[in-house]
């Protein structure tokens, strides 16, 4: 009689670093595969990653800054809106890819065993590739304004804030995307809920407005507790010391990120055992 071997995590809250390290080459394979698939048959290829944030930046600048006359403080409008677009695009792509990742890779999940967390992690890394390209463009625009003397940039300070914003966004995106991917395996309603959820979060994230200018205290506090809000404002803070007006909420943002992370890991670990059976 053949003994049945059941592979399961040590804990419902275990991330499984050791196992993920053993399968690091598979993680690289999944990530590289997704990047190649995205751009292989695209006419403009990687240029789409450049055109999208630049187009959104131009539209926001023309409509909101030039058209409506909205103030962007001490920052040029292009930098102000680009900083928000950077974070939002990373979050949007990471959550969308990871939420759909388990279903998209159903064939390989049914055939072999590997740490299932490899799939949503690779989806987040794929989104990070686009983010890195956008960062190069952003820093190029910053260099232009620095050369003109429009902004006085402390480059080390700026890079540290970009890194902080990236870490906050990655953890938030991974947590929400992994949580949704677990439900998407069993309940395919997620593909209908996801666009609505992302659209709602866009308006709760200060990509194109200053959260501190909102008159309703209740609404402002809700927006300020959004980790993406803190990420965006941290980049803007490196240009304008008056941009980050709610440092007292930073501890609450950290708590929210931690809760989202453990909620995602627990849900994923609890449901991954039957992924191959029902996917």
Relative helix content: over 70%
Number of continuous helical runs? 12
Poorly predicted regions: 1-7
Euclidean distance between termini CA atoms = 29 Å
Summarize model confidence as the mean pLDDT. 82
List descriptors.
279 residues; mainly alpha; disordered N terminus
Characterization of the model:
The structure is a single chain. The chain is mostly helical and about 280 residues long. It has twelve helices and no strands. It has helices at about 15-20, 25-40, 45-65, 75-105, 105-110, 120-150, 155-185, 190-205, 215-225, 225-235, 250-270, 275-279. Helix 4 (about 75-105) packs antiparallel against helix 10 (about 225-235), helix 6 (about 120-150) runs antiparallel to helix 7 and helix 7 (about 155-185) runs antiparallel to helix 10. The longest helix has about 30 residues, at about 155-185. The radius of gyration is 20 Å and the shape is globular. The two termini are about 30 Å apart. Mean pLDDT is about 80; it is low at about 1-5.
């Amino acid at each position: 009689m053949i003994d049945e071997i059941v592979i399961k995590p040590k804990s419902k809250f275990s991330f499984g670093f050791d196992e993920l390290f053993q399968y690091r080459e598979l993680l690289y394979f999944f990530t590289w595969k997704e990047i190649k698939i995205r751009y292989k048959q695209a006419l403009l290829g990687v240029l789409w990653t450049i055109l999208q944030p630049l187009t959104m930046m131009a539209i926001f600048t023309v409509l909101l800054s030039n058209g409506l006359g909205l103030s962007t403080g001490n920052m040029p409008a292009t930098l102000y809106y680009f900083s928000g677009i950077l974070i939002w695009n990373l979050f949007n792509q990471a959550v969308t890819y990871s939420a759909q990742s388990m279903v998209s890779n159903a064939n390989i999940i049914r055939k072999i065993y590997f740490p299932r967390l490899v799939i949503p992690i690779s989806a987040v890394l794929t989104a990070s590739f686009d983010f890195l390209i956008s960062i190069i463009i952003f820093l190029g625009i910053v260099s232009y304004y620095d050369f003109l003397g429009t902004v006085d940039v402390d480059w080390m300070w700026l890079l540290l804030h970009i890194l902080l914003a990236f870490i906050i966004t990655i953890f938030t995106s991974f947590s929400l995307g992994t949580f949704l991917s677990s439900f998407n395996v069993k309940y395919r309603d997620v593909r209908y809920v996801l666009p609505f959820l992302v659209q709602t979060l866009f308006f709760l994230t200060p990509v194109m407005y200053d959260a501190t200018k909102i008159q309703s205290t209740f609404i402002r506090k809700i927006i300020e507790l959004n980790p993406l809000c803190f990420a965006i404002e941290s980049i803007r803070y490196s240009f304008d010391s008056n941009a980050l007006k709610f440092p007292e909420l930073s501890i609450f943002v950290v708590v929210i990120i931690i809760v989202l992370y453990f909620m995602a890991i627990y849900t994923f670990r609890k449901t991954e055992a039957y992924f191959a059976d029902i996917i």
